[in-house]
Design goal:
transferase; protein farnesyltransferase activity; CAAX-protein geranylgeranyltransferase activity; EC 2.5.1.58; 337 residues; mainly alpha
Amino acid sequence: MPEITIEEVEGDAAQAVDLLSDSHWRDLAPLPYPPLPQPVVEIDMDEETALLMGRFWAVKTAGELSERALALTEHIILHINGAHYTVWEWRWRCVLALRGKEVGDVEESGSPPGVADTTPWPSASGFPTAVPAPALEAERELHAAVAAANPKNYQLWNARRRAAAAAGAGALALELAFTGACLALDAKNYHAWAHRQAVVAAAWEESVARAELEATRQLLGEDPRNNSAWSYRMYLVRALAADLAGVGRRAGGGGPLEGGATLDPGSPLIAIEMDLVRNAVHAVPSSQSAWAYALGLRPLVPAGALNQGIAALARQVLGAAPWSLAALRALRRAEGP
């Protein structure tokens, strides 16, 4: 992940707007935190934080989508609360109003142009017809700074998805690089995996999917217990199987429809996956994720076609590791009704 300091990200905005100076805010008095119906405890803030948050609530109440509002959201995210949902939401509205082209012409469904409603893009406020590349790059720099501090920030990934949707399929390489950097910090970061799956599905290409299979193979070689990597790989395999079987694609573009594909048990795709499982369970016999993955391949072939192979593998593993409950469970399921 590129090293981006808070000062570098915040520099231009800080020069343009002095967030603490009254001269920039004479027309707008700070407002208190919106009252809660059943308050539990009052948030303790220092004077500066209270002032800036008060100005944010004033901006939001006034419906102001301005450069100073954009700068204010940036400062709050970087210095006060990087997980503040309302601040992130208001920031994106500012981006659309200030940077978006034809902002009034948004997709009512919440999907980006050319992507069907069934694709996993967020739908909070719709998407602009286009957002210029420099504006999206500014958002990506902010995302990188936040991810460096907390790569599991929920609001970060919601914002990233919106920016990716506004950029379209051309940003796929950037999104894969960003998620890859986050996964290098934590290979089981569910948020990063979910985002990666969403952008791959929305900009589906078989060559990309096969490259992703290789990337997950390497990660699973490092840790056969990585359930997130197994889950993502299962999505890729099911989607590729649907392509191979000609089941169909999502309406309006995007990846193939997963499910309903039936492949020959001797298909190279199935053979490769079973080899991967075999290596994983021999390395870590107790890997529940690997055994679950093997069982999850069964719907891709005619009924019962993989049961014998899975049962034989389980017996082989149990011969060397009789304590493996995961292998025993897989054996029972493969031999069961």
